Amino acid sequence: MSGVRMGKGQETRTRILDAAQASVLAKGFGATSIEELIAETGLTKSGFFYHFRDKTELAKALLRRYIDEDEQVYDRIFGQARELTDDPLQVLLIGLKLLADLMGDLPKGHPGCLVATSCYYERLFDREVRAINAEAALLWRRRFRGMFDDIAAAYRPRDEVPLDELADMISTVLEGAIIMSKALDDPLSLKRQILALRGLVKAFFVPLPRD
């Protein structure tokens, strides 16, 4: 939080999480070792295990922090959109444009998604880690489903598509675009995919006739 200095213990915990996140996104959970993180952060083994009992506890903390940060970004972006218009469709469209611009401004592109990465390595983790992944997917579904519910009250969709599927599609495009941008070594691909999604959403809804 801006203007609040972290205590030494929190600073150390954050340093471990930062190092772990960079390593996991670069080479995966399986290839990230506790010994590597200890060397990277300059801690002793006892210092590391004071903060995280094992690698699974570290994974849980990483995922929860990532999800919280994503939620803060969405809150800020769509909050800004709601300050500009009361039209629910325009709120979503403006928010997607702001998100695209934010992703396009990242100098090296999006570093990657920890939720997607942990899904690839789910056999390494216990049920609680998998539950956190499911929780994130449902959290994002509820967020965007709520926005589509508001849109459906003022607009008619051009096709009969369940609103849950539309809500999931936003997360699906975002996660897939992150992978695509890395596969093609094209950081701006993520921005273009978000803008393409925005165009599809814009074309999908027709205003309801006014009484």
CATH homologous superfamily heading of the largest domain: Tetracycline Repressor, domain 2
Q: Count of DSSP helices?
A: 9
**What is the fold-level CATH name, i.e. the topology of the largest domain?**
Tetracycline Repressor, domain 2
Beta-strand residue percentage: under 5%
The top level CATH class name of the largest domain: Mainly Alpha
What is the molecular shape? elongated
Rounded to the nearest angstrom, the distance between the terminal CA atoms is 48 Å
Structural class: mainly alpha
Radius of gyration equals: 20 Å
Helix content: over 70%
Q: What profile does the largest beta sheet have?
A: 2 strands, antiparallel
CATH architecture assignment name of the largest domain = Orthogonal Bundle
* Topology as a string of helices (H) and strands (E): HHHHHHHEHHE
Strand order of the largest sheet: 1-2
Number of individual domains: 2
List segments where confidence is low: pLDDT < 50 over at least 5 consecutive residues. Answer: none
